[in-house]
Design brief:
With about 375 residues, this protein is of the alpha/beta class. It has twelve helices and twelve strands. The chain has helices at about 1-10, 15-20, 30-45, 65-75, 95, 105-115, 170-180, 205-210, 215-225, 245-260, 345-355, 370-380; strands spanning about 120-125, 130-135, 205, 230-235, 265-275, 285, 295, 300-305, 310-315, 320-330, 335, 340. Helix 1 crosses helix 2 and helix 7 (about 170-180) runs antiparallel to helix 10. It is elongated. InterPro entries: CarboxyPept-like_regulatory (IPR008969), Peptidase_M14 (IPR000834), Peptidase_M14_domain (IPR050753).
């Protein structure tokens, strides 16, 4: 925060561009109670567990709804996307109940996510030095009859399968953008901070491969909102001394700037009707990526994508869909890709069908006299 404010006031063109063109939200501490406990113990006496849980005993990072398992269960039953969405999956009702085992901090963050149309996010943690991306949840081994028989001697049989997100390539790009700009994150020749290197010397890893867990903030953010979120572990020492903080800042400074700039990669635009009025909650579909997003209240949207050419369509209730080709380039700066949707008659047709009991409406043949029953039905419909 201090760096952005000072450099902006000093006229740093890079920071001025970032602050001017980006809506930046910063949360200093997600778990202030746990942090207080850890801070009082200090670096030598502190440990992973001490500041990990809230005062009420919740692990916030695993306290979110497990939407990934719900999505995979629907996929097994062939319900996606016709009866079960592949995006903006609703929060289960039992999770929203007042007596649900949900931390007050978790509820606050979920409400915050619903209020703001976030595009890119990161939660900053310590005790390791890598970037972790979704899915954090490991998919249970399929038990369908079509599944291939497994050998009892196969070690992988005892472990769930890794499931990549539809945006796997984009998540890897975002993770690499941070790790490659870090001064030491990709220097894994000595192994990881505590065990062997899990990142193949790249400084990035899929969460389910490294530390599988259900109900993570990253998975929830991806499946419930438009936001692509990652976990960034800033350094091996979870509680560095004050004298070490300056070097830790230097290690991460360029990475933080580079990562935030990635929000301007991909496509963006506005979806409107033919009168120029914005259409909220329109669905943006990118061909080849089975994960859609929705427009915000002003009809605007942002979609982070890797460089390439994409077939993009916009759909909304009561409107005819629109399709166009949008190109994403290597330079930072999202490609403008707007849509104008014309009104559809299908909404009115469905209303008339519902009035008729969803039975086919008999066509009136010109020149043939109507029966009294047909005349009565026509009068009722009109």
């Amino acid at each position: 925060m201090q760096f952005l404010c000072k450099e902006y006031q000093d006229g740093n063109p890079r920071v001025r561009s970032l602050v001017t063109d980006t809506r930046i939200h910063l949360v200093p501490s997600l778990n202030p109670d746990g942090y207080e406990l850890a801070r009082e113990a200090g670096s030598e006496l502190g440990n992973w567990a001490l500041g990990h849980w809230t005062e009420e005993g919740y692990d916030l990072f695993e306290n979110f709804p497990d939407l990934a398992s719900a999505l995979w269960a629907a996929e097994e039953r062939k319900l996606v996307p016709h009866k079960f969405p592949n995006h903006h999956i609703p929060i289960p009702e039992h999770y929203l109940a007042e007596d649900a085992t949900v931390a007050v901090e978790t509820r606050a963050i979920m409400a915050w996510m619903d209020k703001n149309p976030f595009v890119l996010g990161a939660n900053l943690q310590g005790g390791e030095k890598l970037v972790s991306y979704p899915f954090d949840t490991a998919r249970p081994v399929s038990e369908t009859p079509a599944a291939a028989p497994r050998s009892p001697d196969d070690y992988e049989d005892d472990h769930p399968e890794l499931q990549e997100t539809p945006d796997h390539a984009i998540f890897r790009w975002l993770a690499i953008s941070y790790a490659s700009a870090h001064l030491t994150m990709t220097e894994t020749f000595r192994g990881g901070c505590h065990t062997q290197d899990m990142t193949n010397a790249m400084g990035i890893v899929q969460g389910a491969k490294w530390h599988p867990r259900a109900g993570s903030m990253n998975d929830f953010s991806y499946l419930h909102t438009n936001c692509l979120e990652l976990s960034i572990y800033l350094g091996c020492d979870k509680f560095p001394h004050e004298s070490e903080l300056q070097q830790e800042w230097e290690n991460n400074k360029e990475s933080l700037l580079t990562f935030m700039e990635q929000v301007h990669r991909g496509i963006k635009g506005v979806v409107t009707d033919q009168q120029g009025e914005p259409i909220a909650n329109a669905t943006i579909i990118v061909g080849g990526i089975n994960h859609n997003i929705k427009t915000a209240s002003g009809g605007d949207y942002w979609r982070i994508l890797n460089p390439g050419e994409y077939r993009v369509s916009a759909r909304a209730e009561g409107y005819n869909p629109s399709v166009k080709t949008c190109s994403v380039f290597y330079d930072i700066g999202a490609t403008q890709c707007n849509f104008v949707l014309s009104r559809s008659n299908w909404k009115r047709i469905r209303e008339i069908m519902a009035m008729n009991g969803n039975r086919p409406i008999r066509r009136i043949v010109p020149g043939r006299p109507m029966t009294p029953r047909e005349r009565m039905r026509l009068r009722l419909r009109l």
